[in-house]
Amino acid sequence: MFPMSPFRTLRALRFLFLAPFILLLLLVINVATYHGEWWIGWAALGMGIAWVACLFRVLRAAMLVGGVAALAAYLTNRKRGALQGAAKRWCRSDAK
How many CB atoms are closer than 10 A to CB 23? Predict the structure, then answer.
């Protein structure tokens, strides 16, 4: 797989919110120009496939960011615990 581009992920996130409005506009156009055929279904099918692909891209980015944040929190807490233990040991040895 290719590395994730933040701009592609942001475009995918934008499309998740924009696609329903585009389909609504196409539905209005289809109703206004109706002559016996509902072509909106084909547009909805294509945009639905693209919408699911964008959803997976955004979810993958969210899981990656969440994983990195969890790792950073774990490492920070582990380091903080080691520093607190060293400080307690230093204080105990200083008090003797």
Answer: 16
